Amino acid sequence: MSHEPRAGEIYLEFRPVGQQVKVTAIDAATGIEVSTFGPASAAQSDLKRIAVRKLQRRLAQEAEAASSQRGANLY
After folding, report:
1. What string of H, E and C letters represents the secondary structure of the chain?
2. Distance in angstroms (rounded) separating the CA atoms of residues 71 and 9
3. What is the pLDDT of residues 35-45, one digit of tens each?
4. Quick one: which of 4, 25, 28, 32 has the fewest CB in 10 Å?
């Protein structure tokens, strides 16, 4: 049951590690992933929001770096 990833699709993994939860967010289209930790007592929605925002920031940084790289190649 595989499908082509759509732009903006994010996979989330929640893994308990002792008294904390490791949340990994993966951009389906690029495979870029980030992780964050939070207390096991935190709401899953809060941990999800933090991980997704961190991933969005990373994707923006990657896009900016790629844009700068293309600009540098013009000279």
Report:
1. CCCCCCCCCEEEEEEEECCEEEEEEEECCCCCEEEEEEECCCCHHHHHHHHHHHHHHHHHHHHHHHHHHHHHCCC
2. 28
3. 999 999 999 99
4. 4
pLDDT digits (tens, 9 = 90+) for 48-69: 999 999 999 999 999 998 888 7
Taking a C-beta distance cutoff of 8 angstroms, is the pair 47, 20 a contact? Answer: no
Residue type, 6: R
Predicted structure pTM score: 0.81
Q: What is the amino acid identity at position 57?
A: R
Closest by CA to 40, choosing from 12, 57, 15, 9, is 15
Domain boundaries, the chain: 10-72
Alpha-carbon distances, residue 35 vs 3, 7, 12, 30, 31 (angstroms): 24, 20, 10, 16, 13
